[in-house]
Design a protein that fits this description.
Chitinase A, domain 3, 3 helices, alpha+beta, 19% strand
C-alpha cells in the first residue's frame, strides 16, 4: 500500500526551524494543515510547505511518499489508519507517533 504523509515533529531539535515545538503546538500545525487541504489547497503544496521530514537538500524526503507492506514494522497505529483509509482519501485526524503528528493520505 502506498501513502503520502506530512510529518509535524515535536520535542526534537533538528536543522529545520520549529521542530522543537511542543506536542500541542505541533498538533495545531497539523490541524491547520488539514484545514488548508480541506479548503482546497493541494495536498502536495501543503506537504511541501509543512512537512518536517526533509532530505539533505531541504526537500520533502521521498516526496512524502512511502510504501507500507502488511508485514512491515511500521507503527501499528499508522498501519491501522493507513489500511482503514480509503484509497485517494486523507485520514481526517492527525496520527500521533510519539515524536510527530502525521497527516496521512492513502494513495494506493
Amino acid at each position: 500500500m502506498d501513502v503520502s504523509q506530512i510529518t509535524v515533529m515535536y520535542g526534537q531539535r533538528t536543522d529545520r526551524p520549529g521542530t522543537d515545538r511542543t506536542k500541542a503546538e505541533a498538533l495545531e500545525v497539523a490541524k491547520q494543515a488539514l484545514k488548508r487541504i480541506a479548503g482546497g489547497v493541494p495536498f502536495e503544496r501543503v506537504l511541501e510547505e509543512t512537512t518536517d521530514d526533509r532530505d539533505e537538500v531541504g526537500k520533502p524526503f521521498n516526496r512524502g511518499s512511502y510504501t507500507i507492506a502488511e508485514s512491515s514494522r511500521a507503527m501499528v497505529a499508522v498501519k491501522q489508519v493507513a489500511y482503514s483509509t480509503p484509497v485517494g482519501l486523507i485520514h481526517p485526524h492527525p496520527i500521533d507517533t510519539g515524536v510527530a503528528w502525521l497527516i496521512l493520505r492513502r494513495d494506493r
